Amino acid sequence: MTPQEIVEYLDRYVIGQQEAKKTIAIALRNRWRRMQLDEEMQRDVVPKNILMIGSTGVGKTEISRRLARMMKLPFIKVEASKFTEVGFVGRDVESIIRDLTVTALQLVREEENERNKEKIEAYVENKIIEKLLPPLPAGASEQKRQEYEASFARMQARLERGELDHLKIEVEMPPPGVDLSGGNVPPEMANVQESILKVLGGLGKKGQKKEVTVKEARKILEAEASQELLDEEKLKAKAIEKVEQGGIVFLDEIDKIAVPSNVTGRQDPSKEGVQRDLLPIVEGSTVTTKIGPVNTDHILFIAAGAFHLSKPSDLIPELQGRFPLRVELSSLDEEALYRILTEPKNSLIKQYKALMAVEGVTLEFEESALRAIARYSALANEKTEDIGARRLHTVMERILEDLSFEADKRKGETIVIDVAHVESKLEELVENEDTTRYIL
Length: 440
Fold this sequence. Notes:
By secondary structure, the chain is α/β, with parallel strands linked by helices. It folds into three domains: about 5-110 and about 235-330, 3-Layer(aba) Sandwich (Rossmann fold), CATH 3.40.50.300; about 120-230, no CATH class; about 335-440, Helicase, Ruva Protein, domain 3 (Orthogonal Bundle). Helix content is about 55%, strand content about 10%. One of its GO terms (cellular component) is HslUV protease complex.
């Protein structure tokens, strides 16, 4: 996609912040441009990492995540403040790349499962029907063979219509570490999964069998088909390539590991240590993962922070230099909050209307009510900590709390939210700063 097309796509989900969208669109387009160069030149063209500066809730993460999802790239969001310097108790920074690699492997597996969808479906159908039909005896006559094939075809048609979903068959359970979509779960989750399987049915060992419904068996057999039909080593190689050439790491709260120059007294020594540990990964190094060594030279790093108590120049110079593109995101005023509430493809208003429609309730909002919601949200952000668009979620929940609670009893009704209703729910809360702080 061209930078203009990328920005147009983002406009459907993120309101405003055009400068940030433009910067990231150019960075992603440059990755594609790099892949068109000869190999020697490719090695020398390094990604232009981005530093986003802005308060929480203004769209930093959403812009990055939407792009990664659109382009089917491995993406991971991590908080820099969660890491500790090597030698301290806590997570080490190399786990970022290990987690990104797991994400890439799942992404590649999903793509391959989709590509081999027909083969997987045929494998599952055959396995289920073989368990439901008595086996054809060896050396059966041609007539018996034809009768068996006719029975198989009838059974297949019934299976496709869902008429056999309630029947029970015996299947071999997958071992721990394999999820029911055929992907590998992260190593730290394998033990948890094994414990859950044991609690549910004493399972967790390869080869152990259990009787389940045909509907439940489908997922288990799809995982089995994925393992049988796909080449695991090729998947791993493809995942590593995807990480190395297209991986995106969103490094949030980077301001929390900066050491403000104007602060005197005892400093946390691990903050600068974490920065120094991050440096080799951002500059380019090789990290050992469970599926193989991953080179980080061309992974795109997008760092973000509010920088209320510190500034970008408080980061160590070497790390600053690895984020040449700087973009500042603007705070959200009343008008921006109104647009966020109403314009995005799956805006908050559309979400609540859809949720109430499930209960048979038609939910409508008067224009004046929407303006009031945006006004009170902006006011709450001014009076307390500015949490950006996230304030809209809190305010909307407050307004619709009673309706959500009793929606099942109001089936067939049309509920219109007017400005009087909004004011009755919010005016007193927003006027009292202490109440706002704890409730909104």
